[in-house]
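ingest -> validate -> predict -> emit
validate: passed (alphabet ok, no gaps, 276 aa)
predict: started
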Amino acid sequence: MKKKKILFISQEITPYLEENELGHFGRYLPQGIQEKGKEIRTFMPKFGCINERRNQLHEVIRLSGMNLIIDENDHPLIIKVASIQAARMQVYFIDSEDFFQRKAIFHNKENGKFFEDNDERAIFFARGVLETVKKLGWVPDIIHCHGWMTSLVPLYIKTSYRKEPIFENSKVIYSLYDNEFKPNLNEKFAKKAMMDGITDEDVADYNSTSFVGLNKAAMNAADAVIKASKNIHDELESYFNEVNKPKLGYQSPEEYVDAYSNFYDEILESVEVLQD
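emit:
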């Protein structure tokens, strides 16, 4: 039987950034799923505070070199890779001289302000991952998104990338975390995120650029939703409870790998039933 393929798109992964809940999931969930016999690929942004020499990152020349156009500006895409030896796991990094060279993640270290271009950084990251997976020719059965920075992925898979052979049968899962940001992203976020195959109606949910708004939009576009953090924003908790699609509640650290793996299987089995 062919191994099922799971694509993990994570905003943060330990040990490349300081450990937090999201980074912990990004590191240990793919390893656990791989050990259960599934094939994995893992992506994260190459934030400038990641030490390339210490973590032995190197550029993948054959995957780099594309240009992504955001708000009528060209941005060259650079792909790097590193290995977590203990997990026998590779991590692909989306890099850009325009977006990911600064020595900080989302806030200016000098004045503490939220970067004004975090909206374009999120767009670049989402599109960069999907374009790279296309170039790899690797067909994911499930795409699991972690962190608000991945919130556009469900939309793109359902619109611009819907007819791509690589993604036409992929199911997207979006995980909710307790990692709120303030202030809102740029109010033109939805307009900048537009691509061929996307209508104003498609991006309407993304006109709300608050943390809550982005997570709601991603839940609406995803095929399934997971509550990853025990405590999430009250408004998202209510919305999650009302969502009428496959969903998985909070799982303890001891149980989440088994629970997530079973959840993937349930979603894939339901797809296979529909296709038969």
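The chain is about 30% helix and 20% strand.
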